[in-house]
Amino acid sequence: MPKVTVKKIHAVAKWRWVGSSSDTVCVICNNALENTCPICFRPGIDCSPAFGQCGHHFHLHCMEKWMSENKLTCPCCRAEWSYKT
Ligand SMILES: [Zn+2]
Ligand SMILES: [Zn+2]
Ligand SMILES: [Zn+2]
């Protein structure tokens, strides 16, 4: 795997409420869940969503990045994050 340049997500981390449905949009990157996340950003790559026990879901890669920079909390509701299996 070549090194992937990841855009800074810090600006997005000050997530704003856009009023759109959080069911379809990953609030970490503000991209639709049905699309790939900015970390993948290549068509054909399976970027599966990560489902949390709180009922929110995000791109798996966004969530991994979020957790590496933040606490283990849901970026949406701030509940303690754990993956729904
Ligand atoms: Zn995302
Ligand atoms: Zn991804
Ligand atoms: Zn949540």
UniProtKB/TrEMBL annotation:
Key word RNA-binding present: no
Gene Ontology BP annotations: anaphase-promoting complex-dependent catabolic process; cell division
A Pfam short name: zf-ANAPC11
Domain called RING-type: residue spans: 37-78
GO cellular component, one term: anaphase-promoting complex
UniProt KW keywords: Cell cycle, Cell division, Metal-binding, Mitosis, Ubl conjugation pathway, Zinc, Zinc-finger
GO molecular function: cullin family protein binding; ubiquitin protein ligase activity; zinc ion binding
Keyword Magnesium: no
InterPro entries on file: RING-box_E3_Ubiquitin_Ligase, RING-H2_APC11, Znf_RING, Znf_RING/FYVE/PHD
Domain of life: Eukaryota
Family: Belongs to the RING-box family.
This protein's name: Anaphase-promoting complex subunit 11
